[in-house]
């Protein structure tokens, strides 16, 4: 079935460090890909998305590129802040009914 | 603008008691609605989704049920809670034909004691 695999955490970084969270997917068709972020005690917020191959999603300094050849959608940020501490979820959707999530990666940024 | 309301924010219930969590959406019509559960330290599990009034699809067999009495209202229920029902419950909506992902509510932290 369709699924998402993302790197296990937790990930601990210092401020201004480079962040990468790997995400790969398995799908029978051509999915849309998403990154969601969950700040402590809150629900999930859409961080960025890409709907077709080679699309780059970006928001708040985060970027991810839809790579069909490697079935990947890795999340990157060049210089993290303490406020980026959160749980990050990679997800895919082949239709509007279901969104399949990865297990989530906890990121902690230390001052 | 579209908004989603989910309540209560936190809930502590004894084992064997009933449960009712409510979710309402504003600013859109005929949304797809979802209930997810996030257990401690784990990812998101889709529990139920609904594409219309009275239409409920269950993803996993469990102690919970869902209902959609109105277009923009989605209710998660249980007749008798189990300890294993503890978790963070999230409601979400999406719109058919617009594959922009979901919009999530702020969640309900349920602790069964």
Percent strand of chain A: over 45%
Based on secondary structure, the structural category of chain B is mainly beta
Strand elements of chain A, count = 12
Q: Give the distance, in angstroms, between the N- and C-terminal Cα atoms of chain A.
A: 41 Å
Can you walk me through this structure?
The complex is a heterodimer of chains A (111) and B (113). Chain A is mainly beta and 111 residues long. Chain A is built from no helices and twelve strands. Chain A has strands spanning 3-6, 11-14, 19-21, 23-26, 32-38, 44-50, 56-59, 62-65, 75-77, 86-93, 100-101, 105-110. In chain A, the strands form three sheets. In chain A, strands 2, 5, 6, 10, 11 and 12 form a six-stranded mixed sheet that branches. In chain A, strands 3-9-8-7 form a four-stranded antiparallel sheet, with no helix packed on it. Chain A has a two-stranded antiparallel sheet with strand order 1-4. Chain A is globular, with a radius of gyration of 13 Å. Chain A starts with a strand and ends with a strand. The mean pLDDT of chain A is 92. Chain B has 113 residues and is mainly beta. In chain B, a hairpin with a 2-residue loop joins strand 9 (87-95) and strand 10. Chain B is globular.
How are the elements arranged and paired?
The complex is a heterodimer of chains A (111) and B (113).
Chain A: E1 3-6, E2 11-14, E3 19-21, E4 23-26, E5 32-38, E6 44-50, E7 56-59, E8 62-65, E9 75-77, E10 86-93, E11 100-101, E12 105-110
Chain B: E1 3-7, E2 10-13, E3 19-26, E4 32-38, E5 44-52, E6 55-58, E7 65-70, E8 73-78, E9 87-95, E10 98-104, E11 108-112
Parallel strand pairs in B: 2-11
Antiparallel strand pairs in B: 1-3, 3-8, 4-5, 4-9, 5-6, 7-8, 9-10, 9-11
Give short descriptive properties of this protein:
heterodimer, A: 111 residues, mainly beta, B: 113 residues, seven-stranded mixed sheet, globular
